[in-house]
Amino acid sequence: MKMTERAQQLVRTRTPFVHATVVRAQQPTSAHAGDEAILLQDGTIEGFVGGQCAQNSVRKAALGALQSNESVLLRVLPDGDLQFPEAPGAAVVVNPCLSGGALEIFLEPQVPAPLVRICGATPIADALAELCALVGFDVQRGIGGSDSPDSLTDTTAVVIASHGGPEAETIRAALDSGVGYVGLVASKIRGASILDELGLTEAEQMRVRTPVGLPIGAKTSAEIAVSIVAEVIQAIRKGGLAVPVRLSSVAFEALDPVCGMTVVVGPDTPHLTIDDIDYWFCGSGCRTSFAEAKTGS
């Protein structure tokens, strides 16, 4: 599968990843400018951006880029020559495991957009779906009566614009799943009545907006949609509303017992199990040295 096709597949499944591209390679590195790879949360590297020693540095920087959701230009050096432009988004890593050469790799995180689930088949719901897509949100219509709370775990916001139907049940399902923003399109009186029926805790009440949307005097369906989207954006950018994603297994760090380097453990990280103890290494050289020391051969 081509790298672009794989990236599109991960975007469709809302799987976080980092796209890594070698922008400059100094011999004798095995990578070349233009080489690229996709790095997943569990440390998997699909593609090629350098040998095993370079991969450890790239893997660690990629996981950091995923956490910050900021791109970074990474320079991997084999020694202490730290000549590199001082600039935001640039970083230097000295990797003594490298046999020589240097690499510059651009790491671009791809984190899923906020997912807004819209319940209802009304003009407001239709306008809201269009506007959410316009600002870059992912949109799904409805949550379905058979959906379990677990099916909403990657949802940023649920907006109910059905003007009737199972509104209370939908609010309850969204709250039980941990959705941080639940909006109900209703008058102040009707909305308060529905919430009273649910017997919400104070913390749950703070997650439900009704009337929903910023108070901009909206009247039309499109204007109401604008007020709702603006409120969701405000909650994300200023209110700390989380944009959850479905997590795969996440890579962890270990200490190479030979060279002392911190290793981000992935599926292809050199590894030994001796006397039921697991050891991970920056490269095959350290693994071989450790095995010889342990076995005396």
What would you note in describing this structure?
This protein is 32% helix and 25% strand. With 297 residues, it is α/β, with parallel strands linked by helices. It folds into three domains: 3-110, no CATH class; 115-237, NAD(P)-binding Rossmann-like Domain (Rossmann fold); 252-295, no CATH class. β14 (271-274) and β15 form a beta hairpin. The strands form four sheets. The chain has a six-stranded mixed sheet, sandwiched between helices. Strands 8-7-9-10-11 form a five-stranded parallel sheet, with helices on both faces. The protein is elongated and about 80 Å long. The longest helix has 17 residues, at 52-68.
Quick take:
The protein has eight helices and 15 strands. The chain has 297 residues and is an alpha/beta fold.
Q: Indicate how many domains the architecture comprises.
A: 3
Total number of strands: 15
Strand content: 15-25%
Fraction of residues in H or I helices: 25-40%
Overall mean confidence score, pLDDT: 85
Order of helices and strands: HEEEHEEEEHEEHEHHEHEEEEH
Main beta sheet: strand number and arrangement?
6 strands, mixed
**CATH C-level label of the largest domain:** Alpha Beta
CATH homologous superfamily descriptor of the largest domain? NAD(P)-binding Rossmann-like Domain
Main traits of this protein?
single chain, 297 residues, alpha/beta, Rossmann fold, 3 domains, 6-stranded mixed sheet, 5-stranded parallel sheet, 8 helices
Q: Mind sketching the topology for me?
A:
Blueprint: H1 3-12, E1 17-26, E2 36-40, E3 45-47, H2 52-68, E4 72-77, E5 90-94, E6 102-110, E7 115-119, H3 123-134, E8 138-141, E9 157-160, H4 167-176, E10 181-184, H5 188-198, H6 202-207, E11 208-209, H7 221-237, E12 252-255, E13 262-265, E14 271-274, E15 277-280, H8 284-295
Parallel strand pairs: 4-5, 7-8, 7-9, 9-10, 10-11
Antiparallel strand pairs: 1-2, 1-6, 2-3, 4-6, 12-13, 14-15
Helix pairs in contact: 3-7
